[in-house]
Amino acid sequence: MSSVICEIVEDNNIDILIISEPEEDPMNLLLGLNKKTTRFNYNADACKYINIYSIFNNPQFTRVKEFKRTTGWLFKTPLTEFVLIGTHYYDKYHNDAKEQFTKINRLIKEIEEIERLVNTDKIILSGDLNLNPYDEPAYMSNGLNALSCSMVVQRNKTREGRRTFYNPSWNLLGDNTDSPGTYHLSSITKPHWSVLDQVLIRPNAIELFEKRSLRIINKTSKRSLIRKSGIIDDSYSDHLPITFKLQL
Asked: Residue ranges per domain, the chain?
């Protein structure tokens, strides 16, 4: 698996890598990332569901706070500052709607605590949310409050007294993308393809985000991550990765 990740990083010139639910020794992946050139650091933390690697190090990229499934990092230069939060949240297929709302509200409290600690509202959240953009815990005001239109979010920074997110991941749904989703499940009662891996952006961080950069990766320069049948090749992972760019 590490070789595939290294191919994705090299092909897409990635500077910050978030791994959800890592399965291997992080040092093995670090060695692979630095095989050609020493540029990546393992920004180590104790959150077993998230590993973060980047070409940056402390004090430019500093851990703020970690929780069981979520970790926040402050990126700071003389020109810009924002917080990147990585998360791998609870499986929607093993939690009913009520449980999902309860756990998403726990994530919201974690996000808000990180915001308070660094005193910034420039927050970018990315990871496996185990939700589709159209699921109620994702878009409703008593959930993540993540909306599909950046103009609406910039105009209405709160809804029902809670801060909004812009969710460009809505744009990954449908046929006009590299893949119809990031996760596939054969089911009669549930959608076959879902976009569970997303990026959510607070209103004041939208200016950093390159809107047309968000995409699903379904191949590397050496292999396809999709089988001939059209579903994900889970010999690598049962999810497809996403990438996006920030203007720093």
From this structure: 2-243
